Amino acid sequence: MSIESLKSSKFTFQSSVHSSHVLQCLNEQRKKDLLCDLTVVAENLSFRAHRAVLASCSDFFSARVSSHTTAQGLVISLPDEVTAGGFEPLLEFAYTSKLIFTKENVLEIRNCATVLGFKNLDKACFDFLLPKFFDSSRSGSKVQRQRCCKTKCCISRDAELGFINKDDISDEDKLLLQPLQLRFKEPEPSCPPSVAIEDVPGDCLKVQSESNTDYPLLCPKYRKFQIACGKERSCLDVCDLETAPVSLVKKDENCPLPCFPCSSNGDCKEISICSKTALNGDEDSLLSECCAPSVCGPCSPCMKKPSLTSCRDSTESICVSGDSSKQGLPFCSVMNDAESAVMNSNIETCSLDQSNTLRSEQRSSEEIEVAKQLTFWPECPAQGSPSGLVGKPSNFNCLKSWHMDPRAIECPFLQDFGAVGAQLHDGEGGSTSQGSPYVPSNQSGEDSDSFDTEGDSESYSSERVWEMALPLSVEQIVSLSRNDFQQMLKQQCFTREQLEFVHDIRRRSKNRIAARRCRKRKLDCIHNLECEIEKLRSERGKLTAERMQLNQMKVKAWQTYSGLYERVCAEAALRPEQLQVLAKYSSPDCPLSAFLCPSSNHSQST
DNA sequence: GGACGCTGTCATCTT
DNA sequence: ATAAGATGACAGCGT
User: Fold this and answer.
1) Residue whose CA is minimally distant from C7 C1'
2) Which of A100, A287, A385, A446 has the fewest beta carbons under 10 Å from its own?
3) Does the reported pTM lie above 0.85?
4) Is the CB of A547 under 7 A from strand B?
5) How far is residue A31 from each of residues A18, A48, A56, measured CA to CA in Å?
6) How far apart are the C-alpha atoms of A138 and A126, rounded to whole Å?
7) Nucleotide C5: nearest residue by CA–C1'?
């Protein structure tokens, strides 16, 4: 395609975050009851909403809303079978794409979803999920799991392998299981439904209960601190807030701080399902959006493949529409994740043309030419390569140079550091990190010494990530579970240098986080011990005062009884030998003894 | 310029 | 065997 023809081409900018932003704004409006034009009544509760939103999610609302022309004040009473408890999560889902449910209410929600004709949920979610929840047929072989971290690990591993049956899990296990990211076994390698119970990078999730001595579920690693800090420990100590995925934060009324959904009774099982399909309408991908690391190939079908970062991912893509009439096929080139990682952005390359190999050469040069027409594209060699666009060194170079252009910093595409995805081939181009003329000389190559002493290690790591042309961010390298990480390494074609770097980044980042946790625990422990010391001091003061008071009372009582004894003995006119016998069988504390030998006993009692 | 606190990293141990 | 996390020790940096 010539430059002239490209100049006459139409360009399309497609933002995949736009829709989620819009939805988010709508949700905020709903919460503030702004621009809401619909009241939904379920049982005795009413919910405000935007009719357009509900109509777009639900057949029921679509039918009901379209039959009303009232501009304002439309009130829709839901059928009796739709409960408020079942509807509310659906309403949340309509505005957030996330369905939060428990094992207890999943059936209720499913029923409501069915009645209301909630799209994207029925088949993709419940039909898959419910058997996992309620099928007890697969529970036979499960062994009794140990509590604490090992439980989590076992469950995590089983869950990742898809062998888990939630019925097999004890309440404590559920507690541990809940924040994990479960991926049930996928029947098909492509586009399988999955359930996400999102992952917690932290460790044991048992929050200390009121009893304070309830340690059994704690990880032994934490037990020392837990025991040392005793009662003062709170959920904050266990929950790693720094790395907690927001979407799984449960609002625990017992915990003033946002923490993972743990409760003292061990009964926590809220599960969050993220769905992009509410935005893109891809029903099949409903549950796959929250799961395993996967490599997105260049073709549209693979867009359904699980995306590692889908729960938080926001992607931007540039869609360059070529002249389809000349191409013979629709041509949509979206720069792929490989490049996107290089640019710390999510610019995908995907061709609707299944035979993308043929066109990739054209596309690479075309894209460069097209990009040149965008004002922020700097000069770069328009090299073609028959090996395909993805991961081609020429494009990397271009993209790198683009990234390094100061103007590009303002480019919204470069704001996100997100997507995992495209394959990064190191074929004929070799390592893109080696000898790239676009990499600043002071940052190229291995410079571990300077790395260690860089001021901002994390940002430096991020820089290195794109220097190394890695298709994922530091955050992703660190936050991947072990299995996911291994899977990712298998799927990516890393050079040895890249591999070492990824491992290095992961190790150091994890250790950095661990060191922070460790220091925080120490500080918390010190603080708690200080509090404990204060408390003990205060308690000691109280006890000392109490003891003095009791002593005074004792003296007073002794004096009183002493007087009474004296009177009794005097009135009884006991003879001395009778008094001796009486004293013999009296305790030394008895006033009679003092009466007989006042000096010794009195001084003793005081 | 030294003390101090914070932070990242490494080495080592435990799980 | 391997990975992950915890933690002591050390070093660099800023105040």
Assistant:
1) A518
2) A446
3) no
4) no
5) 20, 8, 19
6) 18
7) A514
pLDDT per position as a tens digit, A421-473: 322 233 323 333 332 322 233 333 333 333 333 345 666 666 666 666 676 77
A510 touches strand C (CB under 7 A): yes
Cα A359 to the center of its chain, rounded Å:
40
A484 touches strand C (CB under 7 A): no
H-helix or E-strand spanning residue A319: strand A316-321
Give the integer Cα–Cα distance in Å for A47 and A76.
Answer: 10
Strand B contact with A512 (CB < 7 A): yes
Give the nucleotide nearest to A222 (CA→C1'). C6
Token pair belonging to A367: 């894209």
For residue A542, the model assigns a pLDDT of 96
**What is the pLDDT at residue A414?**
30
A526: its two tokens: 């010190």
Tell me, in Å, how far CA of A499 is from C1' of B7? 26
Take residue A425 and report the two structure tokens written for it.
């081939």
CA-nearest of A452, A422, A427, A448 to A501 is: A448
Is strand C less than 7 A from the beta carbon of A515?
Answer: yes
Find which nucleotide's C1' atom is closest to A507's CA: C4
- pLDDT (0 to 100) of residue A124: 56
Q: What is the CA radius of gyration of chain A?
A: 35
Could you tell me which of A307, A262, A275, A266 has the C-alpha nearest to residue A129? A275
Report d(CA A74, CA A62) in Å as an integer: 13
Helix (H) or strand (E) holding A77: strand A74-77
Q: Using a 7 Å cut-off to protein CB atoms, list the covered nucleotides of chain C.
A: 3-9, 12-14
Q: How far is the CA of A260 from the C1' of B8 (A)?
A: 27
Nucleic acid strand C within 7 Å of A453 CB: yes
| C-alpha triplet A444, A448, A454: angle, nearest 5° | 90
Q: Is the CB of A200 under 7 A from strand C?
A: no
For residue A268, the one-letter residue type is C
Interval A19-31: pLDDT, tens: 777 888 899 899 8
